[in-house]
Design a protein that fits this description.
about 200 residues; 3-stranded antiparallel sheet
Length: about 200
């Protein structure tokens, strides 16, 4: 009888433990579900959707600005200057309208100072290319034309910036009730969205 009682007692304890584990699991699942519903509704979700729209638009617009050119404007000699304040081995630093271009010295020697022009991006209208001719020093005849992409330009980060800016869109389509989705969502709102706004500021100003 004692043996049966002990066996019964162990069985009851095991049932109690199993019930406790089950309730704990249900509680965690309920809390996860409530948290998921909380972050995918209301102002938090609207803020995330705003980051999706802004970042996706920036990815599209900067892709167009990178792959396509806008207008080209001829420049007078006083509109550009050789910035001697910079010491950069084998490169010249040229300032145009506040934009910095850094052609290699081989692409700078014997340039025709009357041939300079600047090409802008089609959407944000920022300086993109510095164009000029290289002439023969003795004859003055055209040897070749050179176009120099703007140094330290956001457009030079293609396609890395675009992939970075598309993470919120990927997160929107991924949308799962798990920690990875929440990690992506928080990263989109806290890092990628403000980073994209900063990039937009530097593109415009």
């Amino acid at each position: 009888m004692d043996r049966e009682s002990r066996a019964y007692g162990r069985e009851e304890r095991m049932k109690a433990i199993a019930e406790k584990v089950r309730k704990q699991k249900e509680k965690e699942e309920r809390e996860d579900r409530e948290f998921y519903e909380k972050v995918t509704s209301g102002w938090r979700w609207k803020l995330f959707l705003t980051s999706v729209v802004v970042c996706t638009l920036m990815a599209i617009l900067t892709t167009i600005d990178t792959l396509a050119d806008g207008k080209t404007r001829k420049m007078a000699k006083n509109e550009w200057r050789d910035d001697t304040g910079w010491i950069w081995d084998m490169h010249k630093v040229v300032q145009v309208e506040g934009y910095m271009f850094a052609p290699h010295i081989r692409d700078w020697i014997d340039n025709d100072e009357e041939s300079f022009s600047i090409t802008y991006s089609p959407i944000f209208q920022t300086g993109k290319w510095l164009n000029y001719d290289i002439v023969d020093e003795e004859t003055g005849k055209l040897r070749r034309s050179h176009s120099e992409f703007r140094w330290r330009s956001l457009l030079g980060w293609f396609p890395f910036f675009q992939l970075f800016a598309l993470i919120p869109l990927f997160t929107f389509f991924y949308k799962r009730q798990n920690s990875f989705f929440n990690f992506l969502r928080m990263g989109s709102i806290g890092l990628i969205f403000p980073g994209t706004l900063i990039a937009l500021y530097f593109l415009i100003f």
